[in-house]
């Protein structure tokens, strides 16, 4: 088997098992979750472990070759146990990122994005001003939030965030869809599309995180 073919087969296997979306209501209180991701783009799967440290903290550890890197982040839902890490490639550069659930709210879940750097550390993806990028899912009847990826722009991937709130009429929703380009650990806004007074089942309010796998 050629080297290129081996890399392709390995990358396909990693991607096929990377993004597992489980409803939180069915999750067990597991203090440890493991995943496989190609964090350095060499075509080989690296080990990812997410562990609960205490009632408010979780630890993300990756093993890449002979290097180990660890980062800690908040965890607000200890009764459910830590949740599976979502593996993605938000910039399509072959170096996968990790999406970690940090907070389980009454109606909305909050995630952070992490990447493995060339210096061998884990780095949180931020905006240009240093503010951490957070992804949201849910919202209940008061809001609709979510994220997905769009690969239609010149073979480059765009992270799309949906943020809407219910209007005062109690029936329709307004907000935005915002597209981000993720490069070098930074999220840059490419465009923002306003959403105005649409129904809850309008396609513009739909998102599919599976498109980021």
Automatic annotation (TrEMBL):
Lineage top rank: taxon: Bacteria
* Protein name (record): VCBS repeat-containing protein
Question: Looking at the keywords, is Signal present?
Answer: yes
Keywords of the record, alphabetical order, are:
Signal
Whose protein is this, by species? Goodfellowiella coeruleoviolacea
| Record's signal peptide | 1-29
């Amino acid at each position: 088997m050629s080297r290129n073919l081996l890399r392709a087969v390995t990358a396909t296997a990693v991607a096929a098992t990377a993004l597992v979306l489980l409803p939180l209501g069915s999750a067990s209180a597991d203090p440890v979750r493991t995943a496989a991701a190609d964090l350095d783009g060499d075509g080989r799967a690296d080990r990812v472990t997410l562990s609960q440290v205490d009632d408010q903290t979780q630890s993300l550890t990756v093993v890449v070759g002979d290097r180990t890197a660890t980062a800690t982040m908040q965890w607000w839902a200890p009764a459910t146990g830590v949740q599976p890490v979502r593996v993605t490639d938000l910039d399509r550069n072959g170096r996968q990122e990790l999406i970690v659930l940090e907070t389980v709210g009454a109606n909305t879940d909050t995630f952070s994005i992490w990447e493995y750097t060339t210096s061998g550390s884990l780095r949180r993806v931020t905006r240009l001003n240093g503010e951490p990028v957070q992804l949201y899912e849910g919202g209940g009847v008061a809001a609709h939030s979510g994220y997905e990826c769009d690969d239609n722009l010149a073979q480059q991937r765009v992270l799309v965030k949906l943020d809407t709130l219910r209007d005062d009429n109690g029936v329709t929703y307004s907000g935005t869809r915002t597209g981000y380009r993720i490069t070098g650990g930074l999220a840059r806004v490419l465009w923002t599309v306003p959403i105005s007074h649409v129904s809850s089942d309008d396609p513009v309010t739909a998102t599919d995180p599976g498109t980021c796998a």
